[in-house]
Design a protein that fits this description.
The complex is a heterodimer of chains A (about 1000) and B (about 180).
Chain A lengths: L12 E10 L2 E7 L3 H7 L6 E2 L6 E2 L12 E5 L5 E6 L9 E5 L13 H4 L8 H5 L4 H15 L14 E13 L3 H12 L4 E4 L16 E2 L2 E2 H13 L4 E4 L2 E7 L3 E7 L14 E13 L3 E3 L12 E3 H11 L7 E5 L3 H11 L7 E3 L7 H8 L4 E3 L2 E6 L6 E6 L2 E8 L2 E5 L2 E3 L2 H5 L3 E5 L4 E6 L4 E3 L9 H18 L12 E2 L21 E3 L4 E2 H9 L5 H8 L12 H12 L3 H4 L13 H5 L11 E2 L3 H6 L3 E5 L2 E6 L7 H14 L2 E4 L4 E6 L3 H8 L12 E7 L5 E11 L2 E6 L4 H14 L7 E4 L4 E7 L3 H5 L3 E2 L12 E7 L2 E7 L7 E7 L3 H10 L4 E2 L2 H10 L34 H4 L10 E8 L11 E2 L13 E9 L4 E9 L8 E4 L6 E6 L14
Parallel strand pairs in A: 1-7, 8-9, 8-15, 9-12, 15-28, 17-24, 18-19, 18-24, 19-20, 32-34, 35-46
Antiparallel strand pairs in A: 1-2, 3-4, 5-6, 5-7, 10-11, 10-29, 13-14, 14-15, 16-25, 21-22, 22-23, 26-27, 30-31, 33-34, 35-41, 36-39, 36-40, 37-38, 38-39, 41-45, 42-43, 43-44, 44-45, 47-50, 47-52, 48-49, 49-50, 51-52
Helix pairs in contact in A: 5-6, 5-11, 7-8, 8-9, 12-14, 18-23
Chain B lengths: L15 E2 L4 E4 L3 E8 L1 H11 L10 E4 L2 E7 L2 E7 L4 H9 L4 E5 L4 E7 L3 H5 L17 E6 L2 E9 L2 E7 L3 H11 L5
Antiparallel strand pairs in B: 1-2, 2-8, 3-6, 3-7, 4-5, 5-6, 8-11, 9-10, 10-11
Helix pairs in contact in B: 1-2
The chains are: A alpha+beta (about 1000), B alpha+beta (about 180).
Amino acid sequence: MSALRTPTGGRIDRSRKLRFSFDGRSFDGFAGDTLASALLANGVHLVGRSFKYHRPRGILSAGSDEPNALVAVARDAARVTPNLRATQVELYSELRAESQNRFPSLGFDIGVINDVVSPLLPAGFYYKTFKWPAWAWQRLYEPAIRAAAGLGRAPTLPDPDRYISRFAHCDVLVIGAGPAGLAAALVAADAGARVILCDEQAECGGSLLAETAATIDGWPAGDWVATTLATLAANPRVRVLPRTTAFGYFAHNMVGLNERVTDHLAAPPADLPRERLWQVRAAEVVIATGALERPLVFPNNDRPGVMLADAGRTYLLRYGVVPGRRVVIATAHDAAYRAALDLHAAGIAVPLIADLRQTATGDWPEAARAAGIRVRTGAIIATTGGRRRVAWAGVAQPDGGTIEPVPCDALLMSGGWTPSVHLFSQSRGKLRFDAEAQAFLPNLSVERERSAGACRGVFGLTAALADGAAAGEAAAKAAGHGGARAPRMAVTAKAFGGGGLLGPAAGTAAKHAFVDFQNDVTAKDIGLATREGFRSIEHVKRYTTTGMATDQGKTSNMHALGIVAAALDVPLPQVGLTTFRMPYTPVTFGSFAALSRGDLFEPLRRTPLHAQAVAAGAVFEDVGAWKRARYFPRAGEDMHAAVARECVAVRSRAGLFDGSTLGKIEIVGADAAEFLNRMYVNAWSKLGVGRCRYGILCREDGFVADDGVIGRIAADRFHVTTTTGGAARVLALMEDYLQTEWPDLDVWLTSVTEQWAVIALQGPQARDILAPFVAGIDLARAAMPHMSVVEGQVCGIPARLFRVSFTGELGFEINVPADHGPAVWQALMATGAVTPYGTEAMHLLRAEKGYIIVGQETDGTATPDDAGVGWAVARSKRDFVGKRSLARASMAAPARKQLVGLLTEDPNLVLEEGAQLVDDPTQAPPMRLLGHVTSSYYSASLGHSIALAMLSGGRARHGARLFVPMPGGAIAVQVTAPVFYDPEGARLDA
Amino acid sequence: MPDAARVLPLDGIAPLIGPALTMTPLAPCMRLILRGRAAAAAAAAPALGMRLPVLACRSARTGERAALWLGPDEWLILAPADDPLAATLAAALAGVAHALVDVSHRQSGLSIAGSAAATVLNAGCPLDLDHTAFPIGMCTRTVLAKSEIVLWRTGALAFRVEAGRSFVPYVWQYLAEAGREFG
């Protein structure tokens, strides 16, 4: 097809042609191409506009380090993924990609005006320019800057794709499937270890995928990769994950992996997740993340067609793409010579290797010279020319003089290699600067990991394979699999070492010499930052934004350090190193959310009677994770009307309420009463079997923590209820005391919250309604008085029947095993004599009786006495949780806030909960606040509003006139006792 | 008096049956929590027809009865719904310090089996479910995403998952969604 494809070779499948589009233009590529390689094969080098200056940009790299070629890939309106690196996007049939950050088109972008005026946009431009006036930043400057600069746009539709999380464990996690990683995995697996091997690329093999010369154990490199992967695939203890980025290294060898499952498929199966988030807990980790080639810093080094040397070589050898017909090489490192030789061998003209070093000797330069390639040492690139693609390279001496323009259509550069130490650094390992390698290398480990190969400065295939094999052996052994020995691999390959250049070569102009391609930061900007006084690399980074783009400075950080070190004339390690933050490459939000979205965002707890409440037309409210029926509106009713009707029904006839969410703990054992004596403020020893008591639980600080009715089922068995929200907390608190303080007690706790469906039948007719349904239970007042419990049958079902009331009416709470709840509810509803009521009516009914709700009247600083339930405290007990604290003088101070009732002088006015109380509303703010309203309702039964409040010295203020200051004026209230309805309790005892 | 039909948390949900994964709602059964010290465990053995497991996170089975170690003094005993065990166990334990509580309705759950079962569980359960780390018969309280569960490996490729009654629909839906890719 294309003249820019080699006739043979590469790992693309030339029999599978794929049509795709870029910015609406159709192109052809092959299976095995990335979007970048396919574009290059079509001669498309201009793929994006830069972030700030809108300069035309081409493809710089062949991997995840790509700073320029950011594209949006769209499947449909909802499935648009912006900011993808074209170098990582695998081609599929009918792939649609768009360039970003250009208007109106990639070829003609009006934002390029920023480049013309770039002298006016120095580092720190925003900080300097948009300082005044302050209001304008949020309203004017920031929106305008955000609109002009930037990356791709996220789709506004909900993400229709599925994402899955996956936990995994292994003996050895190998990160990176290049030569070192493959060797490590092979050896570790051979030793019997459970191995996970992941690699961010579509194919495992790393640098071996572009290796045509080397052999391993007599195999060509590509065949060795295939054989090795086949060996690993045949081992059930090994899992190989391609397209999987290890994006974060967390404590205790937890490594986060992002697996892209379907992004490379033309038609993803609906049942496959788009991505998997792996949380891998590894006994040992082998980091084999390789190294990234550095660009060179010279003026106009960002022109399309200027590419990393090894990227150019990779396109040629792995993808069969000719990166240019006439290619100039600029280098500070031997690696580019290999690229030059491979290009030369493929028949591509290489007019010049411009080596920035004064001398170029050794195998690689000699081989280049022997091949007839011109090598000019001590040369710099003074500039490049061309419009949307490089047309010539200007080669010069560092000390000036004439510029030799060398015509070319591509320029491959190499500044040396930067080991990828980000994961090691995230593991909290300590780095050291190696002067010979000109790189930071792993030094002291904190986690159980080891680096292998180029990521720890071990370059060259022979050395990397041996290093990987040794790391695999050591890791397997450390994980308890000492069986294997690292094999000696016979490798034929020519190596090169570390070194290279950090920062621009001496004599290079700084203007338009880009360091950070993605954030448009030049050597000049960094120089300016140091001149303006920035010393720490962390400050230089934030001032210039170098290294702060989505590529996290993969190609730029070391250059920035080199420039700052040179400018300040200090050794490079003294400048410091910025933090390597996760994720290594951007990870989708969907991947982190995984299954926890929509219905699965949180467990939604429904009571056993939920369907019955739905059938009765309930409106639900969220109470913690529970759905509770709030009220049951009939046609035409709003909440107020429905609640009023429900309350009247309970007070006049009978209501039915779902109390199943109530926390329940069964406390059993000979010491059960003693245990309750120690936990609750009340006395329990004398509570008879079949009797109930309202219990108050305090914390050690003497403040009310929970409350609930406790029934004695047998001498050694109590049925304890807690608040809905306190169930788990109270059980944990009790278990804590039992295990740590009183392990000698013969008593055990079992949560039975969900064992029982609880149906409250409340109202003056409750007994009559219930009577036909019970068996073995005497409901008569004398046999079953208020605050009693009996086991028997309701509707033929074994039940615990409590005679208790949270409404102030004669009432029962029917506890039946949960699965039977609906039948009992339906039977009672079928009588036609009961009205279902919800939590709203329940709250109102209990407020009429002055019954507190822990957490509404109390706020964690109320003693039992403050909350009006001091009568429950058995002060004669030797001890109970909170007793010591309650004995403190301040806990009995007369000015403490105490529970009172409030009546508004206007009976129709309903106070706001949380409103404050004052005695003189005319005082100047800040007013002296005496207390606050905790509950407030309109009581239909009483015909006026009621409120509960916590008021300083409240019990001594009954009858006082106070005020609730509100925006519309102060509201006069009268302080009363907190019980508004049936204060004698005659109805309870009916 | 109406017939008291039981309503289970997964009523109306059909089992999932695929080549690599099956999920089946649990039928009603008897669940008892026995708490106590070694003496209680010893006293319970004859009534149970087996010794209670004393190794952490291990289970014992006899016939259709099973006992799961949940803590140093806590076992979950599973038996058929009509097993007269509750009464015989209570009788056997009379006079020995213990707590025996019926929790048959407190929890429910599902059985999950197939070559993908462990993988699907690992979508929300952080434990190592490899057979070397979690062998047949192992059981534990753990989490599945945002729900507490009891996980019990009943076979090489089979697990029983129990959760609090109100969490069971969430657990089912989570696993079903995680299992979609396995057909």
